[in-house]
Amino acid sequence: MLIKLSGEALMGDRGYGLDPDFVSEVASEIRNAHQMGVQIALVVGGGNIFRGVSSSAVGMQRSRADQMGMLATVINGLALQSAMETLGVETVVQTALEMPKVTEAFQRDRAVAHLNENRVVIFVAGTGNPFFTTDTAAALRACEIDAEILLKATKVDGVYSADPVKDPAAQRYDRLTFTEVLAKDLKVMDLTAITLCRENALPIGVFSIYEKGALAAVLGGQPKATIIEEG
Ligand SMILES: Nc1ncnc2c1ncn2[C@@H]1O[C@H](COP(=O)(O)OP(=O)(O)OP(=O)(O)O)[C@@H](O)[C@H]1O
Ligand SMILES: O=c1ccn([C@@H]2O[C@H](COP(=O)(O)O)[C@@H](O)[C@H]2O)c(=O)[nH]1
Description:
The chain is of the alpha/beta class. It contains seven helices and nine strands.
C-alpha cells in the first residue's frame, strides 16, 4: 500500500514545523501496520513548512516557490525516517529532486526491491515538478509500484459533502465512486490525483491521522475511512 501523510498534521499542536512526539506516534502506527506483513511506501506532504501557493510565496515565481515546497517534504521525510529507525524499522528515502549527499534518487525498480526486502520506502520531493501536489505524487508513485490501495492519512476522518472544518453540517460518506467525487467536486484530494487513480482503477482510502489504530483497522478490513473506488 502507499500512504500519503499530511505534512500539516505533522506539526501537531504547533503553528509550524514538526512536533517530534507526534511524528513518533505516526511512525509507531506505521510500524504496527508494517508488522502485520504489509509492504508500505509513504509520500509525505509539506504543508507544515511551505506550500508554493501559500501567502508566504506571494511575489515569488511559482516554480521557485514550488521547489521550496518540495524541499519542505524532504525535511518531513527525513524526520519520519529518523523516527521509524528509532523504532527499529528499516527505511529508505527516495527523492524526486536529486541530492546524492542526502539520500537516494527515486528509481522505481530500486523502490520495489526495497519493498521486497521489507523496507519502508519514503518518497519525498513530490513528483519533482512544480504545479503539482503531493497528493498527485502519491497517486503517481502508487501506480508506479503497483500498490493495491492509496491511503490518505489526513486531518479529517473521511470525505464529507463539504469541508467539515468549515461546515459542521457536512455529511460523511463511507463509500464513494471516483465519478461522484469529481461530480460533487469534493476537495479532500486534488482532481489530478483523483483522475489518475480513476484511470488506473486504484482505490483510495481517506482516514484520520489523529485516530489511533485507524491504519490497522483499514488493513483489518474494518476501515474507519471513506473508500473511493469505481462503482
Ligand atoms: N469534501 C471534503 N471532505 C473532507 N475534507 C475536505 C473536504 N473538502 C476540503 N477538505 C479539507 O481537505 C483537507 C485535506 O486536504 P490537504 O491535502 O490540503 O491537506 P493535508 O492532507 O493536510 O495535506 P498536506 O500534506 O498538503 O499538508 C482536510 O483537512 C479538510 O479540511
Ligand atoms: O509534485 C509536487 C509536490 C509538491 N510541490 C510543492 O510542495 C508543496 C507542498 O506539497 P503539499 O502537497 O501541498 O503538501 C506544494 O504546495 C507545492 O508547492 C510541487 O511543486 N510538486
